[in-house]
Amino acid sequence: MQVKYIQPFINATIKVFKEFLGVEIKPGQPFLFNHNENKYSYDISGIIGIGGHTLGIVVVSFPKLVALDLASRITGQTIKIFDDTVIDLVGEIVNIIAGNAKQGLEQYPLVISLPSIVKGVNHQITGVSGVPMIGIPFSSKKGDIYLFVSLKDLITA
Amino acid sequence: MKERYKWPVYGIILGLGSSFLSTFMFFKQTGVDITIKKIINNPLSLLIVLLATLVLCLVFLYIGILRDRIVSQREETEKNKKELQKEMMDQSLRLSSEINNAMEDLRKYTDQLDTIVNNIDSGICFINNESIIETGYNDTFVQIFGDRDYEGNSIINSVFGILDDKAKNGIADFLELCFTNKTASESILNDANPIREFEFVQIVEGAVIHNVISSKISIIKDSENEIIKIMFIFNDITAEHELQTELEKRDRDYAKRYSIMVALFGNDKLVIRRFIDNLEGDMKKLSVKIKEIKQNEKNTSIIEDILGIVHSIKGEAFALGFEKLSNVSGEFESFFKGIRNKTVDLENNLEIIGFFEKLNNEKREFDKTIKALEEFLSIDNINTASLPEADKELDLSRSRDNYLKHEVVSFDLLRKELNLINVSAAREMDKKSIFQLNTSLNGVNEIKYKLLKELFLHLIRNSIAHGIESPLLRLNKGKPEVGNIILNIFNEDGNTVFEYTDDGNGFDLEKIKNRALESGVVTTEKIEMMSNAEIIKIVFNDGFSTSETMDVISGTGVGMSVIKKNVFKELKGKFTLSNLPGKGIKIKITIQA
Amino acid sequence: MKALIVDDSRIMRNILINILKETKVDSGDIFDAPEGKAALEILNLEKIDLLLVDWNMPELNGLDLVKIVRKMDKYQNLPIIMVTSEAARYNVVEAIKAGVTDYVTKPINARIIMAKIKDYL
What is the ipTM metric for this complex? Predict the structure, then answer.
């Protein structure tokens, strides 16, 4: 797993939160993600698939409260129900993150999929087999957002 | 007879009749006796009659002709109308049949095309010279690229949309090339196809799907040899591609394993085993240390610790010839050297995890190879092939034991292995010692070997920790600077004898006494009654240590008790000890050959 | 059916001549030239039906030869097969733009080139 592929996603996440949502988030200590540990809490994730010289997924996961807060910020009204609108908005945010990250990855022969959304309390996130999933927490006032990355280098250059 | 001729005849008859009658009546009224004969004979009256007849005849003739003309005109119009109607009918019939035929042809053609397009495994779509996808893309095309409405959209945006801009430009140029070069054949155009193979990533129900797609084009021209559209043929070649990657990976894995195996065979079994044990421990330590690194803090001490561990893995792996493992830990080490004086920020932290995983991967590969090798070498390997999966592991370990019983391990290996312990312990304790093993015997079986190795490992560590004095002290005592540890192995009365000597200080009886009293192993009264030999025996009891500090080499209190256990319990042997205070010790172990 | 082979290597020309003979072109109808200018003379004198041309040649190279040939009225639809060692994709694109009909990369495979030639006979 090469950091050069992950860094653009971290930068894009911070940038999108700051510029698009007006939320300052701070990346925390990265960890090796183990789903069974059950330490992390999130309710909705946007999954981006990556192919090319590296293969795997990048996931942005939000707890319910953060998602509701973000939706309220975007729409300008207080949203308290976790409904399709919120899900759509999360999808849009992840879409923008992917788009921004793509700019930082232009020099690498990578293919990035359109994001898709998975929801449910601590839903299963599976990385590429045989490759660990690295989690990077971002702390915000309403809770932690996670960036999960699992990439398998097909070509190590 | 025609109508027009009837009328003048009517006129003549009527004219003749009526003029006769009227003339006759005229003369009669005027009182003139008149007969027909008279009229005929009278030229005047005849003239009048004839004249009247003629006039009437002409009038009727005219009427007849007029009527005839009107009738015939009407008939003509009627006839024309009918003809026109017929003609129109014919024409429309002809047209509709033509249309029908054309429709039929078209249906046949589209049916044919549909059959072709829908019954082949390739995804097919047609694009026009504006890169717009036309109707007629098939189900496979939708299967490959996902269920969306493609018709009327640009192929670059809707299919290649997720490719990077460089690739997109390539496709645009290529399509232009296809549409503008009439002389080029399909095969040469396909040679120029920039997306002959490309990767397509999509997420279906939360799962990321990576597909490798191949594309080919086919040019569709009209009768005037003008290119009207291009048919794209897409194939999902993920499986083939995976197989190829798998094969390449297997080749790489084999190469890697081969190099590990070469290194394994090039070294002594026990040296390797020791290395594996160390590696296991080092990796555990490393993972703990890596978790301790906190973001944005200077963690000089943890970084130093990690550097130490990684350095030793690198060094040992290099010495034994495990090239890849050594390289990876080398990269890890140089990375750490680079960040030693900087803060460990997020990026570095990610790198550390990345390097750790890389190293862990190498270790896994290493373990796998050794396991595979062990399985291969185990004697009952062939029989286990037919065993159910659950029994297999059990049986393998049994067969391994079986194999160990038969395998004779040479004392040459013991010499090397113990020498390594001697060197590393001496270095650690800042002492100087030489280890010698003299024997003319071959060796012992693996099980005995293990016990003996463990036994002498502890003896040597203790000799260096407690027996051999520091170089300066030795020189002061008039001894050579370098201490000697000698192990002689020989046969005596059918038994194998291990004679171990060191030229250190011997057992320090006072120290043992104090230590024993301190730890409460014996009482003061009892110790006064004990002989020197009995006091020394305390050393070999569980949990006894004369070391003040717990160091790596000795002092854990388990060392010497192992000797007792191994000799008496495991090897069923005998043990004699002579202490030469100030001059060293001599231990004689006798076991059955 | 007349064919012209343009290649600066004599051996290569012989190989291609032999392949053409296999595809039942009369040996009297097979012309060859070592470079573009000589080829143009033959193309002007004869009515050629198939042109096999190398890319890199002294004097007039293959690509320029193709460009000139395509401007000649009688050769608008002439099948031109380029037989070359330039295998990169951008070379193929360049060849297409010059007017080449088909492309075979060296080292040539007799079976492949024969199949291609048969397409144009």
Answer: 0.85
